[in-house]
């Protein structure tokens, strides 16, 4: 299992700190957060992608995943007018182009909250239409779209392994896959391992992070309520050997370098213990 660093928590630091720390702490790759000041897709298109490529080469640290910010202001393809949806789609198409130029294997999207005044039928029609448009572009550029389920605190649209399976059954493409962030199933009393059982080869990626009941807080691995050592052992047992990003976000923004080290040290120890 390859372990990645998520860079959102470094947004008050220079981007180079992410690459430097990923290298020195023993991460295998970076999942690059696509927001200002670091990697907002229009800024990358305007020339700043050369800075990212320089860091990839300097630290020999690949960007395997690109996660453009699109769950709130100003982009959320699940809410607003058709013009606003189209604007979000164009932004995400540009993000796919930038992911390709960085050498990313996948780009992550997540259907956010659709508001309180829409039916399930309207919500799903909008989501399917949007994802299909993005998948068509992903097929052209050769970058997979990994679609993420969210917690009920973040979304009323796409929240469970069964939601993921339903969408993947409707949009059949090798360039559309899904993933499991550990917090959404945990806070909804859903089985984490069910994602692997239900989704099979389409379960392409993970966010390994701890959590606690009643909140969508993302907590240091091993310091929340999820039985993390046992989870790591089961992932080894079933042979999961794909990517798993340690998704520290804004809760650790004051000292991201300290916590990025602690996160991978915690998970590497659990992985070593799983060998016995």
Structure write-up:
With 276 residues, this protein is an alpha/beta fold. The protein has a single domain, classed as TIM Barrel (Alpha-Beta Barrel). It is 45% helix and 15% strand. The protein is built from nine helices and eight strands. Strands 1-2-3-4-5-6-7-8 form an eight-stranded parallel β-barrel, surrounded by five helices. Strand 1, helix 1 and strand 2 form a beta-alpha-beta unit. Helix 1 packs parallel to helix 9. The model has no long low-confidence stretch (mean pLDDT 96).
Poorly predicted runs are: none
Number of helices: 9
Residues in helices, as a percent range = 40-55%
In the CATH scheme, what's the topology name? Answer: TIM Barrel
What is the averaged pLDDT score? 96
Alpha-carbon distance between the two ends: 16 Å
Radius of gyration over C-alpha positions, nearest whole angstrom: 18 Å
How many domains, in number, for the residues? 1
Main-sheet strand order equals 1-2-3-4-5-6-7-8
InterPro entries: IolE/XylAMocC-like, Xyl_isomerase-like_sf, Xyl_isomerase-like_TIM-brl
Keywords: Isomerase
Enzyme class: isomerase
Pfam families: AP_endonuc_2
